[in-house]
Design brief:
Length: 239
């Protein structure tokens, strides 16, 4: 009887310690899971914020030059393929006109030129693209930003046939600052050299000049706007 009593007494004393031994394992599992869940939420929120910051970046007169200066540093691509209703042609951009080259590559990668038009066609002179009367084009410009580019006419390039150049902004500016969203291609043979010094050549057509000539041959109406819309269906960087 006495032995049995001692046995129950010892069992009673040992029981709390047995129970306590299991509890830490249970308590350790839950906090670790919560910490992992919190960490994953923070990472997801950070990634979302980073994406939003990228999407919300807008070019301005104050930041455009610095942005394109940095953008062109590691820029290896120098060709853009333009696909139109009349076929495709390829433009090679000049490396030593860095801001205009970087701008054209950047806008192409952003998809800006897709579904814009060749909105000005002057027979035996130029075709001009990058604009449209479509509201989507205006929205794209608003999303990318409002800025101009300084001229860069001292690199020795002339407005030979096939040259791609950038027109001056319609905004009244005595320094001939360029409209970054538009471009024109010279079709005059051998060239339109009266444009030298006023506009910035930043590349040339190296394939598909016959397509450029087809566009230039299209009938136009008032203001040199083609009678039938001529769309750039796709602009893509050749990497």
């Amino acid at each position: 009887m006495r032995l049995k009593t001692c046995y129950y007494f010892l069992l009673f004393i040992a029981t709390p310690f047995i129970g306590c031994k299991d509890n830490p394992k249970k308590s350790e599992t839950k906090p670790n899971k919560e910490i992992k869940e919190i960490d994953s939420i923070e990472v997801a929120e950070k990634e979302t914020n980073d994406e939003q910051e990228k999407d919300e970046f807008v070019l301005t007169e104050d930041n455009a030059i610095d942005f394109f200066f940095d953008y062109q540093k590691d820029l290896e691509a120098d060709k853009v393929k333009i696909t139109t209703d009349f076929g495709s042609f390829v433009i090679q951009l000049y490396d030593n006109v860095p801001y205009h080259k970087a701008n054209f590559i950047y806008l192409t990668r952003k998809g800006y030129f897709d579904y814009t038009q060749f909105h000005r066609v002057v027979k035996d002179f130029i075709i001009q693209g990058g604009n449209s009367d479509d509201k989507k084009t205006a929205k794209k410009r608003g999303d990318i930003g409002r800025y101009l580019l300084p001229p860069d006419t001292r690199k020795g390039y002339k407005h030979d046939r096939g040259t791609i150049s950038m027109p001056s902004s319609e905004i009244d500016n005595p320094h001939m600052l360029a409209s970054p969203y538009e471009f024109f291609i010279v079709v005059t043979d051998p060239g339109s050299y009266h444009l030298d010094g006023d506009f910035t050549p930043f590349g040339r057509v190296i394939e598909g000049m016959d397509v450029v000539d087809k566009i230039n041959a299209q009938p136009v109406g008032k203001g040199d706007w083609p009678s039938q819309n001529i769309y750039i269906t796709k602009a893509e960087v050749i990497e």
